[in-house]
Amino acid sequence: MNPVIEVSQLNKKYGSVEVLKGVDFTITPGSVVGLLGNNGAGKTTLIQAMLGFEDTNFGYCKIFGDTSPDLSANTKHKIGYVPQEAELLPWMKINQIIDYTRSFYQHWDEKLVSQLKKQWQLDNNQIIEKLSVGQKQKLAIILALGHSPELLILDEPVASLDPSSRRQFIRQLIDINIDKGNTILFSTHITSDLERVAADVLILKEGKNYYQGGIDELKEKFIKIYVKSERPLPEDFHVPGIRKRQRIGGHTMLLVEDIARINLDAIKTTYQATIETEQLSLEDIFIEVHA
Amino acid sequence: MMEWKLFKTTMTTGWIISLFSGLIVLIGLALEILFAIKGSGNQNHQGLSLTFSIFLGVGYSVLFLSYAERLKQMISYRYNQVLPQFRYRLLRVTLVYFGFVFVTPLALLVMFGEMPFSHMLGLTFVCCFLMVTTIVNQVIASVLAMVTSGNIVYEVAKGLKNEDYVALAYLPAPVEYVAAFFILFFVGCFCWIILKLSPSFFAKTDSKITSEKAPFDPFIVKSKLTLFCRRFDLSCYFWILQKVGASLAKPSISLWNYRFHSTRALHYFLLCILIAGYIKDVSYFDILFGSFINIDEAARDIPYSVPSIAIILIAILGVYDSGTTGEFNQMIRFLWLRLRVNGKNTFIKKVYLVAGRKILFETLLSYSIFALIILSINQLEAYFVFFSIAFFIFKLGYFLFFSMLQNQKSSKLIAILTVSMNLVLAVTVMYLFYSAEAFSLVSLATLLIIILMVTLKRFYFQYRQMICS
Does the interface predicted TM-score (ipTM) exceed 0.90? Predict the structure, then answer.
């Protein structure tokens, strides 16, 4: 199956600052991928470069087989994009900007647009300039969903939404993904939202992709191990992929990034220890990755 | 010292406008003195003095309008109120600032006989009026300004047509006394407004506080009237397009903005005055800008009003519709994924074409109005050619200024350089006008070509840049 997005060795510099340092990843049709990373990790730059808003220094990005930024009209119309800050025309009323946006597309899902407007209490005659930040974001989401895009790229779309609107939006994304099999790339800092909607995650760290894969696989790999033994573990005790080691009372806590590489039975036997494991939440993993 | 901090705060926002209008004022003062020394005792002196008083009036108006806007913002922020004696200190700072930049230079000019007292009175009246009305409501300020100036123009026009008619005779006292009374009244109002009115009053009347800031201060709301006026004609055009069933998929719509609205309003305003003048067989521009303060019969024939009107119009029309590049990025970002074109290059060509067409249309419209006004006050071909070239020089200068401001890294430096360039041009235009010969036209044409080349180069680089930075 051809990937919807294919990014290879993507490099982007702003002056002497290297924001993206050879990012590689692919996204297959129908998948929902969350894009995680600290502030300044390069999430927005990556999205902008993929969509052709930003030039790159090296590498390439293909969307539906077209190399960015030379995207064909057909490809562009398959994309729905919600930027971090809603880019709207402030003098227009809500119905005017919807009419204006609709005029560019051959297909427009009037039912979905009306339903979302109603759900989010957006009135046709409200002037965009007078909307709150959250309302503008809701409108931007509606405009991005209106033409039923095959690929949705969302750059922190829920940051300014209230919790109930966030829930509704997440439910909407799930419906879109399940009903139509659309692909979604979703950048956010709210990991709980991500866990609700996304099966896969792409973690960017210092301009590089640190991890790409399933959220469940990531959780299975990143594990806290509590070792309780008769005698304390020696100073030079080492296991592969250890990220943190801490003594808590009679226990030693080990945080490992790939439990498959560790022979737990050997530790048990060598140190006559009992071992307990604990899975981390996505948020905890995110914090540990960036610690 | 808190006063100094307050002063610095009032100057940090909108500093380009302050710098630009401040430089206009400075150059106006310098030219006033220069020409006064050069042409003392000459008939031209009176006309020149009037011309530069108007020049100063424009500069001071912009300076004080922008200052009043910042005062409003400072008072509207509630946390400023906790500063000890904030209002009194702000008033003190304002009065010192006014005394320093306005009263002192004008008083000196009057004392040394380089400016008639009536001009100073007129300038003070205009500035006080603008300061107070801008703080209360911009829309009311605009309407009052239009009614007042329209009434004065009508009265003076009637007086010129009919020698028996005494202009503004309905006033209970001589014009100077009435002006002085109103100046005192406005100063009193200003002090009262600054010291007594609540912060929420200022927030309500502040049209520059955007809705993005609303979550941080729920008391800030934009007046419905302001919103209605700002977007009325844009909405009308869009509504007409919808009603006639025209395709809305026009890239140019994403270039529409509030500046477009105000430019169009200015065009309508100037056109109305022009047409009214043709109907009544009198040039309102000539009267408004050139003849209504103490001009004797002999001086009335001197075409001093031509340069004064031309300079004002060039300054206004030149700066007004040159801001299209500001909306260019907005247009690109809004349309990039929506417009049905293949590839980036085709897209960029398309949007450049749309923006270019709009700029050309706006420039030609402005130029047509400008040319009609100049022709209505003077038929001499030399003047017409001269000011046409000057118009395009200023237009390109401002255009360059706005397009370069898009590059945020060097925007401050470019702003200073371009403002300086415009001022040098202004001085050159003035100098060349007073030694008007074929040489001056050649010089202006050369300047025009240089600016054109720089503008094209800038566009070439912008074209090669990414779609949006």
Answer: no
